[in-house]
Amino acid sequence: MTGALVAGAVVGIGLYVLVRALFPPRPGLSARLAAFDAARRRDQEDAQAGRMSPTLDRVGGIRAKVGRELVRFCESRGWQLRSIRHDLAITERSLDAFLATKFLLPAGALLFIPLIVGYFALLGLGTSVQIPAWICLLFAALFFFFPDMQLRQEAAARRQDFRHVVGAFLDLVSMNLAGGRGVPEALMTASNVGEGWAMHRIRDALANARITGQTPWQALGRLGDELDVAELRDLAGALALVADDGAQIRKSLGARAASMRSRELSELEGKAGERSQSMLVAQLFLCAGFLVFLAYPALMRVLAS
């Protein structure tokens, strides 16, 4: 019965994939424009990067090729992958490498099926393929979702650091406004103070805005959309509304910085409370194990008598 269900599922999936391959959905205009822009960016990056060394080219050639093909496939289907792109942007990774990792890790797990079958045969457990196939499928599923979990955790940590930098940046901008500078000059001067990766991103966004003729708050809003940082988008909106009133924007920035610090402090207190509770649970388990260790000899004597 199980074999029949598995065979029916495999046949159904095969028919579905065949129909989708024969009649692919037509991508919309936005998807085609996004694919065109992505291809142009890849060509520019390849021209700037130059030729790699022969060893690195051989090692990363397959991974790079698989990543490019997967990116083209997603763009042809019109898949935006916005959350993944936000996380990759804040962790400074490429979509090609991420998709290649998601594909090659499960594929590598499935390649171990013959090895596990041979190992079971050496142990005398038979040559059945069913159990090794299920084991490799389980590991393939885990390996497929492992890059997403790792990327999400790293992106959350970097967003927390970025929010902390934004709070300090607001204080610096408020101090520069109090010194008599205008809003654009105060933003640029404040961004030149720090040396961390987050302040570098803010500084680059403001410098690019000056070159392209955009306003600084538009550049900050675009950076907030790219990195999915709500505090930066709110800052851009506030600057766009009250950029002409220096005193009002100075008060607003000070209030925003204070609220961000209080929220960060409350989050840190909540994390500290969670860790205290986990330590308490671990101590309770340790005490329970010690009591079992003490009571086991006496219980065995009572049962033996």
TrEMBL record:
Pfam families found in the cross-reference section: T2SSF (PF00482)
Type II secretion system protein GspF domain boundaries: 169-294
Record key words, sorted: Cell membrane, Membrane, Transmembrane, Transmembrane helix
Major location category of this protein: membrane
Membrane topology: Multi-pass membrane protein
Residue ranges of the TM segments: 6-23, 103-125, 131-149, 280-299
Places the protein is found: Cell membrane
Name of the protein described by the UniProt record: Type II secretion system F family protein
Biological source species: Actinomadura yumaensis
Entry annotated with the keyword Transmembrane helix: yes
